[in-house]
């Protein structure tokens, strides 16, 4: 059974990530694919198995700009699959494209409030490392520069598993990751079957301000429901996928 304390902690973490992702300040992340590759190499160095790679980006627009953006994207993404709009969900435009395991999605959504603004949301996911590396090297920067007017921050995440139990991962794999990043712990949520940590490392160029400090990497660890092992999700500057 999952304790109510754990459920409340998870709700707080996911809500914080969602708010920051949608409404936080934009910062330029420099070479935007580097953080994902750094996370990948770091986890492989401690014998973790990565099962998914993800990038998430968003840019705020006015309603007028969003209409122009939708028209441009429909032309620019002519070889993508354009999905029907869903005005009940304030979705103005959605297009998806898949190549191998690499899946891209562009969505324009409205906040649906008086004097509302809109957001262009761009995500990339993959389940094959070589395909993701090839996409980052050949296609990501071009897609990013055409989809967005400015240079919005890129949120990067990986998820997968360690073969060891949670209590073994904490002093071993997690400790080595933090040491390799030269990261300073900022906040910790610890339960019997779950552990979440936020930290700051100079190796990650972008960051977010917390009420009392600054952070730019987040780790979520959860005991596998069946068999030995520990599932992980790691993101910079925060985790933007459910864990």
Feature tags:
243 residues; alpha+beta; two-stranded antiparallel sheet; 6 helices; TATA-box binding protein; YwmB-like_sf
CATH architecture tag: 2-Layer Sandwich
The mean pLDDT is 85
Total DSSP helices: 6
For the biggest β-sheet, the strand order reads 2-3-4-5-1-6-12-11-8-7
For the largest beta-sheet, the strand count, sense and barrel status come to:
10 strands, antiparallel
Q: Give the full name of the CATH homologous superfamily.
A: YwmB-like
Query: Which stretches are poorly predicted, pLDDT < 50 over at least 5 residues?
Result: 1-30
Query: Element order, helices and strands?
Result: HHEHEEEEHHEHEEEEEE
Tell me, what's the shape?
Answer: globular
Structural class: alpha+beta
How many angstroms does the end-to-end distance come to? Answer: 17 Å
Task: State which percent range the strand residues make up.
Answer: 35-45%
Proportion of helical residues: 25-40%
Q: How many distinct folded domains?
A: 1
Tell me the total number of β-strands: 12
Taking all Cα atoms into account, the compactness measure Rg is: 19 Å
CATH topology: TBP-like
For the record, the CATH class is Alpha Beta
Provide structural commentary.
The protein has six helices and twelve strands. It has about 240 residues and is α+β, with helices and mostly antiparallel strands. It has a single domain, classed as YwmB-like (TBP-like), CATH 3.30.2030. It has a ten-stranded antiparallel β-sheet with strand order 2-3-4-5-1-6-12-11-8-7, sandwiched between helices. The longest helix is centred in the first third of the chain and has 20 residues, at about 5-25. The two termini are about 15 Å apart. Residues about 1-30 have low confidence and may be disordered. This is TATA-box binding protein.
């Amino acid at each position: 059974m999952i304790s109510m304390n754990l459920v409340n902690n998870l709700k707080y973490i996911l809500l914080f990530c969602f708010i920051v992702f949608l409404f936080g300040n934009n910062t330029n992340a420099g070479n935007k694919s580097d953080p994902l590759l750094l996370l990948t190499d770091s986890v492989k160095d401690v014998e973790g198995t990565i099962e998914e790679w993800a990038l998430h980006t968003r840019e705020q627009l006015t309603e007028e700009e969003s209409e122009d953006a939708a028209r441009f994207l429909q032309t620019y993404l002519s070889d993508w699959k354009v999905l029907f709009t869903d005005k009940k969900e304030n979705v103005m435009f959605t297009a998806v494209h898949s190549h191998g395991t690499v899946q891209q999605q562009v969505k324009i959504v409205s906040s649906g409030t008086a004097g509302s603004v809109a957001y262009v949301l761009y995500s990339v996911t993959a389940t094959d490392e070589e395909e993701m590396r090839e996409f980052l090297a050949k296609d990501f920067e071009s897609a990013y520069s055409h989809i967005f007017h400015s240079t919005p921050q890129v949120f990067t995440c990986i998820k997968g598993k360690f073969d060891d139990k949670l209590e073994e991962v904490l002093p071993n794999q997690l400790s080595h990751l933090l040491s390799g990043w030269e990261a300073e712990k900022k906040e910790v949520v610890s339960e019997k079957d779950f552990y979440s940590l936020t930290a700051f490392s100079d190796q990650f160029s972008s960051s977010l301000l917390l009420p009392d400090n600054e952070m730019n990497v987040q780790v979520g660890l959860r005991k596998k429901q069946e068999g030995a092992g520990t599932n992980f999700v790691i993101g910079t500057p925060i985790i933007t996928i459910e864990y």
